[in-house]
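In this section we walk through a basic example: taking a raw amino acid sequence and producing a predicted 3D structure, encoded as C-alpha cells. The instruction is simple. Fold the sequence below.
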Amino acid sequence: MNDRIEKRIELKAPVSRVWRALTDHREFGAWFRVDLSGPFEPGREAVGHITWPGYEHIVWRAVVQVMEPERLFSFSWHPYAIAPGVDYAAEPPTLVELHLEAHGENTVLTLVESGFERIPASRRAEAFRMNDDGWGIQMENIRQHVEGTAADAHAG
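The resulting C-alpha cell sequence is shown next.
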C-alpha cells in the first residue's frame, strides 16, 4: 500500500480565486461539505459538522499547519475517522497539503496526503482507500465551485 495520496487538477480560475476557496472557511465548507465554526488559523484546530447526507453526525476536526498565501494550505487530521463513539485523538494524524501553482490564467492544484503508515494497521487500508476516493470527489467539487460549472457540487 502507498503511504501517500496524490491528486492533481488544473482549474480554470486564477490562483487568488482557488486560494480563497481553500482558505475561507465558508467557501471551503461549501465545496467540502462541512459547516465550520470559524476561520482557519495556523496552529489552531478547525471544527465543524459534516453536511454530506448520511454523515451529518460526524464532527470534522483538523489542525491548520501552514497558510502560505496563494502557494500552500496544509492541515493535519485523522483520516476516515467516522466510527461513532471512537476517540481518534491518540492516533497520529495524516498531513494534507494543498499546493497552488499558476499555469497561465489557470491554477494547478496538487493535493498530497501523507502519513498513512502511522495509522493503526487495523484501519490503515480502509482509511487510505476511502480518502483516496474522497479526494477524487473533492477535487471535482472544488473545480465546480471555482469554475461555476454546477449550481451545487455533488458526490458523483
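Looking at the output, two observations stand out. The chain has one domain: 4-147. Residues 53 and 77 are 21 Å apart (CA to CA). In the next section we compare this with other chains.
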